[in-house]
Amino acid sequence: MARVLAVGLGNPLYGDDGFGSCLAQYLMQFNDFVYDGDAHGVGLLGLLSDYDVLVFVDVDASLPPGAVAVERIEGSLTVRETRLLDAHRVPPSLLVGYLRAMGRDVEARLVAVGPASLELLSPPSRQVLSAARAVLRELEDILAGYGLVLRWEGDPEAEILRCYERALGARPRATAPGTAGRTSF
Questions:
Q1: Does any domain span residue 181?
Q2: Does 53 fall in a domain?
Q3: Which among 12, 46, 84, 139 is least buried, having the fewest CB atoms inside 10 angstroms?
Q4: Model-level pTM?
Q5: Which of 9, 92, 25, 85 is nearest to 53 (CA)?
Q6: Cβ burial, residue 40 (10 Å; 0-12/13-18/19+)
Q7: Cα(118)–Cα(47) distance, rounded to whole angstroms?
């Protein structure tokens, strides 16, 4: 049986960038195959190398705000990609590229959400929060293909907001459309 890990990526100090991390924190309460990768970047490679299948949740700035897309990650190590490397801001494709360079032939997918704001100390946007249930449905479908049942209960949007509250030290409210970048507390 394939070893499967769902990994949320991102940093809640940078607005919508923290969505994957916060969603993973919420799902880890109910699932032992979910991990909060936070913004650990290349520091995750040791952990990730133990798995055959990786399903990442992260933001993708090429998508419209709140849009959800599922992509297969081929992963590569091009000079262009590694030149842009920041040890904490590593896209899933580069992580998979490093794993393949290490001799691990992992299968990888990305469930991506388009961010509305990536500004420092901004709360999650309404668009990204509204995408939470669609992301959960995509994760459920992908994981079911490996015989795993994604468990969750309650209100994912409220749990994501609580994650931002812990990170930002205040009670954030989602930013309204058209106000991306403005902090609402």
A1: no
A2: yes
A3: 46
A4: 0.88
A5: 92
A6: middle
A7: 27
